[in-house]
Amino acid sequence: MSSLPDDQTVKDHIARLRIKELSECLDRLGMKKQGRKEDLQRRLLTVIDDAGSLWNAGLQSHGMPQVEATKRVIEEVYARYMVQKASPALRLPPTRTEATSAPTATANGGNSATSSRLPQPHSNPPGAPARWPASNTGPRPHHPNALGFQPVQPTSHTPGAGPSASSSCAPQAQAGTSAGVHGAAAPVAPGGTVRCICEQPATRHGELLSCSNCHVYQHARCVTKPETRASAPPHMCERCRAERIDPYWEVVTSDIMPAFKLMPTGRNTYVGTKLEPVQNAERMFTITPSQYELFKKRPNHKLQVVCMQLSDSVPYRCLWPLASELRVNGLLLHVYNRGAHTKPGKNQRDEPANIGVLANPSRNRITMSCSDPASYVLLLQIVRRRSTEEVKGLIRPPLPLPEAIERVKREIKSSDEDIEVDHAVVSLKCPLTGARVKTPARFSEIEGLMFFDLDAFLSVAERSRKWQCPNSMRNSSVYTLQVDAFMSSILGSLQDLPDVAEVQVSPQGQWRPVGGPGVRGSNSSWPWCDAGVAPSALQLPAGQASSAAQMQLPAIKQDPEGSSRPCGGDSSDEEDEHAELQKAAQAMQAQQRKAKQAASELIVISDSSEDEAPPPPPKRPRPAASPSSSAAPAP
Q: What is the 3-class SS of 240-297, one letter each residue?
């Protein structure tokens, strides 16, 4: 494959193209193609000039893949345009645009002078692509196959749980290997799909990464940073990440428009007091009448734009960059629930932008600009609202009880290898509500014995869109959430003891309650129980009554020495003993009442009268008023 021409040559070719060819270039690049000829030329020249200014300044532009794609499209269209002007004998096979359009008129009276100036291909074996002499400096006609493009193979994409299918706009990679970093080979599975956000062929840009969920291939330099590539978690493509942002919204389709990446413009602007680079992107997309009716008339459906940071430490969240401006068909849409100049933290979650009210059932234009140094990717989706029961159907099935017991044994033994652990104390209260858990749940990849209530967690996650473990604060997804079979069996055994808030778990996988109304004193009186024991088989410790008996006799104290009678004796003996205890309590209460009455009848005579209250002082008679004082004053 020949090398691309320099910037000046591409600019000369742009100046020679007609409006028809300029519109074709912009349409293939996903840019706006309406306007005057000067406007069309300016849009193509802006891509070349911005990258050239960064290159001359000694900076490598992150938008070089876009610049290379622009040059290839311009050279291909220009070469075909020159061939059509020269002679029909040198015309290359028509593109999809020409194949669907009306055939152009052919003429044998072409310009012979122009035809003689065009380079002629050398003779090649049958079926081989045309080779052009290295000494030729004239324009070279390019064909998509000669540039390494692969034909588009439409495939289906199935949203929802589990591995998703490949995109319908992803080219199929050839079996074998592709060029890796510094010429190293990166294996590609036979029939593997390459779907990168740069929309470039599989054999370009070095090493390829495979999605751990849908197994599509992407260029490592396009989706990751070199400094974080070695320590990064398993790679996941942008579509699989978007499906896990909010499981309460099912992705119906993502094939309206390919995902695209914001590209730097080479300009900087102030965000607050800091100078940040400006990034933007512009794309055209078409909504069919059936798609328009789907999110306009059906309930619980919407058309949304999701923005994600490529190297985000929290992979499953929507995050808009600083100073974002999203425009749909020229109308500005507000995308923030926070300040536009406020950097988000790890617990920050942004909402996808609902653009259904601005979309048309035809061709639409979306424009995005921001002032943020990080790399961001945007996706367009039609989503449907899920119910809580549907979300519960996405969680991982619980482990069988024997496997759950083995996991508990490993967790207790691996807690501290230097210290021998006798038992571990586990709380039965949910960290979100403070009440005892009804349905214990946990994330399968997070270590430890702690858990939380499933219904309470789903209620919080539905409002906050945070799929985060309440105990360890680690981020996860709905597809790793599962019911804890070990703790579920313990809670089933403690249904008759609702006040038990903690249990002890031994390294052998056994357990016993801690505390509760029927547990007063040492925990050693409770026997160790195996997981899965039936509630009827759980016996109270010797020397202590059940919680129900204590509630019936609150005034009777337990014998501190304990009773040697085993649990489960004769029922008639228990009734007789209960009646005797009640009679003894009534007799003791009667004696207490008689003692109080006798104490009230006693009169204590003291030797001194100091404790007696002194008599009240006598009242003095009020003097009568004199006649002179009561008379009225003289006028």
A: HHHHCCCCCEEEEECCCCCCEECEEEEEEEEECCEEEEEEEEEEEEECCHHHHHHHHH
CA atoms within 13 A on the CB side of 330: 2
Phi-psi region of 182 (alpha: psi -120 to 50; beta: other; left: phi over 0): left
CA distances from 624 to 621, 630, 631, 632 (A): 9, 10, 14, 17
Q: Report d(CA 95, CA 19) in Å as an integer.
A: 18
* Cβ atoms 192, 211 nearer than 8 A: no
Angle at 53 between CA 141 and CA 146, to 5 degrees: 20
In this structure, the number of other CB atoms found within 10 A of the CB of residue 371 comes to 24
Q: Following CA atoms 388, 391, 393, 396 in sequence, which dihedral angle do they give, to the nearest 10 degrees?
A: -130
State both tokens at 235: 């790679």
Q: Return d(Cα 165, Cα 360) in angstroms, integer.
A: 28
Name residue, tokens 């012979």. Answer: 112
Positive/negative CA dihedral, 538, 541, 547, 548: positive
Nearest CA to 1 out of 194, 126, 144 is that of 144
> Is 147's pLDDT higher than 90?
no
- Quick one: pLDDT at residue 343? 81
SS percent in the chain: helix, strand, coil, step 5: 30, 20, 50
Beta-strand ranges (E) seen in 138-259 are 176-179, 185-188, 208-210, 217-219, 249-253
DSSP state, residue 487? H
Which phi and psi angles does 327 have, rounded to 5°?
A: -125, 135
Using the CB atoms, write b or e for 500-531: b if 16+ within 10 Å: beebbbbbebbbbbbebbbbeeeeeebeebeb
CA distance 476 to 250: 18
Mean pLDDT of 325-330: 94
Give the best-scoring range by mean pLDDT among 101-110, 429-438, 608-617: 429-438
Contacts 24+ apart (CB under 8 A), 432-438: 432/456, 432/457, 432/460, 432/470, 436/491, 436/498, 436/501, 437/487, 437/491, 438/491
User: What does the pLDDT look like over 13-61, one tens digit per residue?
Assistant: 888 888 988 988 888 888 888 888 888 888 888 888 776 665 555 555 5
d(CA 506, CA 512): 9
Report the alpha-carbon distance of residue 48 to residue 70 in Å, rounded.
Answer: 8
Convert the pLDDT of each residue in 422-459 to its tens digit: 888 999 999 999 999 999 999 999 999 999 999 999 99
pLDDT, residue 461, reads 95
Residue partners of 471: CB distance under 8 A and separation at least 6 = 431, 446, 448, 450, 451, 452
pLDDT digits (tens, 9 = 90+) for 57-86: 555 555 567 788 888 888 888 888 887 765
Q: Which two tokens stand for residue 393?
A: 């159907």
Neighbours of 344 (CB within 10 A): 17
Q: Phi-psi category of 527—alpha, beta or left, where left has phi over 0 and alpha has psi -120 to 50? A: beta
d(C-alpha 349, C-alpha 8), whole Å: 45
Are 436 and 217 spatial neighbours (Cβ–Cβ below 8 Å)? no
Q: Could you tell me the pTM of the whole model?
A: 0.59
**Residue 346: is its pLDDT beyond 70?**
yes
Query: Rounded to 5 degrees, what are φ and ψ at 213?
Result: -110, -55
Q: What residues pair up with 442 in beta bridges, in sequence order?
A: 482
